[in-house]
Amino acid sequence: MKLTFRAVRLIALALWVGGIVFFLAVASVAFKTMPDAHFAGIIVRGSLLALHRIGLFAGTAYLFFTLALLATHDSHPVRAVEIVLVVSMIALTLYLQQSVLPRMETDRLTLGGNVQGTSPELPAHQNFDRLHALSTRLEGTILFEGLALLCLAPIQNPELHRLS
User: Fold this and answer.
1) Which domain holds residue 16?
2) Per the structure, how many domains does the chain have?
């Protein structure tokens, strides 16, 4: 049972972190190969929304199975750090999904749907750029927290091996 809980946690986390890394590749390729930054932005936005859904599902699964491990007395002091990290990742993802991205979309629509085709002096363009920078920093934070979790997740209580 404990092995299954640990495996599910790692699979969920690997999907989320791997998804973020893949998203970075998709975004880079989209902006380098699409003939228009507007269309690349549409692809990147859709990919980001899908990534956030995956992340919220994976984060919830990770949290659930971490709590399940604690309930089976499979504990280690690092579990508290894991819980803080995964809750932070979920909260940041929710903030991006529910607040930052909708405001970016409002700015994009205010600018006629094409941010790059407008003057950088326009308030909506400046706000979009500010939100884009915030989004990038928050996604980076989520990625680094996920990488830290990947390092922490395999740690087990050494007492469990002596009891077996």
Assistant:
1) 2-156
2) 1
pTM over 0.85: yes
pLDDT at residue 160 in the model: 55
Q: Is the dihedral of CA 6, 66, 10, 79 positive or negative?
A: negative
pLDDT tens string 53-108:
999 999 999 999 999 999 988 788 899 999 999 999 999 999 999 999 999 999 99
Q: Quickly list DSSP for the chain.
A: -HHHHHHHHHHHHHHHHHHHHHHHHHHHHHHHHSS-HHHHHHHHHHHHHHHHHHHHHHHHHHHHHHHHHHHTT---THHHHHHHHHHHHHHHHHHIIIIIHHHHHHHHHHTTT-GGGS-TTSHHHHHHHHHHHHHHHHHHHHHHHHHHHHHHTT---HHHHHH-
